Amino acid sequence: MTWVPGAAGSPYGVHNLPYGVFRHGGRPDRIGVRIGDLLLDLDGAEAAGLVLAGGALRTATLNAFLALGRPQWSAVRARVTELLTDPAHRAAVEPLLVPLQEVELALPFQVGDYVDFYSSEAHATNVGRMFRPDEAPLPPNWKHLPIGYHGRGGTVVVSGTPVTRPSGQRATPAGPVFGPSTRLDIEAEVGFVVGTPSALGTPVPVDSFADHVFGVVLVNDWSARDLQAWEYRPLGPFLAKSFATSVSPWVVPLDALADAWLPAPEQDPPVLDYLRDIPHLGLDLRLAVDWNGTVVSRPPFAGMYWTPAQQLAHLTVNGAVVRTGDLYASGTVSGPTREETGSFLELTWGGAEPVKLDGGERTFLEDGDTVTISATAPGPDGVTVGLGEVCGTIVAAGPPPR
Amino acid sequence: MTWVPGAAGSPYGVHNLPYGVFRHGGRPDRIGVRIGDLLLDLDGAEAAGLVLAGGALRTATLNAFLALGRPQWSAVRARVTELLTDPAHRAAVEPLLVPLQEVELALPFQVGDYVDFYSSEAHATNVGRMFRPDEAPLPPNWKHLPIGYHGRGGTVVVSGTPVTRPSGQRATPAGPVFGPSTRLDIEAEVGFVVGTPSALGTPVPVDSFADHVFGVVLVNDWSARDLQAWEYRPLGPFLAKSFATSVSPWVVPLDALADAWLPAPEQDPPVLDYLRDIPHLGLDLRLAVDWNGTVVSRPPFAGMYWTPAQQLAHLTVNGAVVRTGDLYASGTVSGPTREETGSFLELTWGGAEPVKLDGGERTFLEDGDTVTISATAPGPDGVTVGLGEVCGTIVAAGPPPR
């Protein structure tokens, strides 16, 4: 039981303890851990000798801490828990607590390689129907491997960063034209943050997931559907995605999600050996997509066909390295019903079936729209684990380059 | 005229001066500039006050120097030229020259985002014919935009790094199987190294290329064609490419290539405004692909349909940032004849038409094979600019993950 006022029973109690990077009082960015509606200044805590991490908590980004590896992650978590629960520490720790409303949250880690998967069967089926109506909805490889592709690490931004509407080429009957995207969309996803690196040429086995992955963020992989439809053959999405990918400011440790694992959907046909995870588990994360104040969808992460352990095993089976700070996202999280879809492409069926919003009808994103994706997971003893939120507001496109 | 013995008239005279990172005498990695068959230790030169770059030359990677921007790049180049040509500096500079055969060359810069284009018309046509025989060889978007996709920055390695044969899934009539790639290939490319970053949301105009790009490396984008054919639809190549991408150890500054620009192929249909570069110039880089000691191909970079300035303008037109250390590659450089192709897929027409090599016939790469891609460009006064080489030897696949 934590002594921090208001934290006990909250989704951000001592069972959670997500890490982030904050700005406060004009000082340089510092690492903190959330407890209730406060954060514990870990830079100050390590400076005071209250927690020891070899200086890794005294930097402006989580990367050095992420690189320490699971034994150290566990040790720091145990010590932080002790500081926040044992009243004997209250006098020393309380001055290091900062109200969340006083801070600005920064990108929590420097992103290395960013990979985006495509692991919801409902999403892949929906997109296949819309983008490739003359073919089977699921590509022939889809149930044999977790399809993924590389995105742009350099345009991963923290929640709250305004998203400028991208311009680019889209097809018209008269040929391609250049201009601001007219079909700007979201993708509600869950991202996995790599801590411990792997070695070049050495795959990460499917059962070594927790040795490498530190924790979870929420991801909004903003997508310009008109740009995507024109550019993506044959080498995949490029500018339709690379203008911005937003992540939540809190990295929730896997340790906080121990009660959220549950059997993942059965895989038929059976997968190849290197993808066989026993037990085959997914995470019961319950997402909510809020569009200008209205929750329009509740995508269930529990139904994802490919698990995060399988994704990591696949990503490295060719010998590719993962590095500290690498991020891989699940792909759009969509359940089988319209109210569980993780994109507006699916929610409005390509714009053909608008949703009611703000007293009118809406399809894709308009300038000024704000989308907030949040999530919770089951925690210990009936309490909830909060994953925070990732939000962004659309800003009008800038002028053409010249 | 340089006073450095043996350097005058060489492809690495004072007209070239490529930058790299070297290891020597058990000391930490240092920055050097090549002159003839020696390198000038720029760490030592800045330490001695012979060249001033605010400490950017006293680090273990080129990134800080790349971040300085064009005026500083020019100032350092002018000063290094002075040091290597004015005999008055010889006594101070000569002790800082290190024979190349004594050093090990390291990855010259930390790679941020890695993008690979697809800008040779001959290559795209050849691949289209082989991968999509039922469709037009060039996709409908190909002449409207420089198609590209993101690769894996974390597995960019320096020339000389052994390349382990990747394992992965390939299709068979009985379904996908897992194992070492049986169609391992090269892609001979030219890479552009970003120095000056751009701002999120602000495209880089097509005429600002030289403000952002510092220089050029040679790239071998190793490719597993069997993995690629099975995985690439609908989101593009992933594991078929991400196991290793080799780059040359020397970054040749754009300043060294001033005499290598020439008109690029005329573009018909006309391109959209943001891609219109006037003058429309390519680089006359002459590549050579050596396979186990035999030059099997001479790909001409001058014939590339899309120019590096157009590629950068396209890459950022949606507001995506470029950062210091970002690398974008041209895509496979292939000319119209078989002897000008930049991949063995094309050279052997998908393996159907083997080439004679080592007294036998060969199609794709075998374990132990070594491929070396080199290039030269025309320099001032009839002298040649050497771009060095990127080489790699194939090592047998490791065991499966478990």
In short:
The structure is a homodimer of 402-residue chains. Chain A has 402 residues and is an alpha+beta fold.
Topology:
Two copies of one chain form a homodimer.
Chain A: E1 19-23, E2 30-35, E3 38-41, H1 42-47, H2 63-66, H3 70-85, H4 90-93, E4 97-99, E5 104-106, E6 114-117, H5 121-131, E7 148-151, E8 156-158, E9 163-164, E10 167-170, E11 177-180, E12 184-185, E13 188-194, H6 209-212, E14 213-220, E15 223-224, H7 225-231, H8 239-242, E16 245-247, E17 252-253, E18 261-263, E19 281-283, E20 286-291, E21 294-297, H9 308-316, E22 327-329, H10 344-347, E23 355-357, E24 360-362, E25 370-378, E26 384-395
Parallel strand pairs in A: 6-22, 8-16, 9-26
Antiparallel strand pairs in A: 1-2, 1-5, 2-3, 3-4, 6-7, 10-11, 12-15, 13-14, 13-22, 14-16, 14-17, 18-19, 20-21, 20-25, 23-24, 25-26
Q: How big is the Rg of chain A? A: 21 Å
CATH topology assignment of the largest domain in chain A: Fumarylacetoacetate hydrolase, domain 2
CATH architecture of the largest domain in chain A: Alpha-Beta Complex
Compute the number of strand runs of chain A. Answer: 26
Number of domains of chain A: 2
Oligomer: homodimer
Overall outline of chain A: globular
**Most extensive interface between two protein chains, with residue counts:** A-B, 74 and 74 residues
Low-confidence stretches of chain A are none
CATH class descriptor name of the largest domain in chain A = Alpha Beta
Give the overall pLDDT of chain A as a whole number: 97
Strand content of chain A: 25-35%
The largest sheet of chain A, given as strand count, sense and whether it forms a barrel, is: 8 strands, mixed
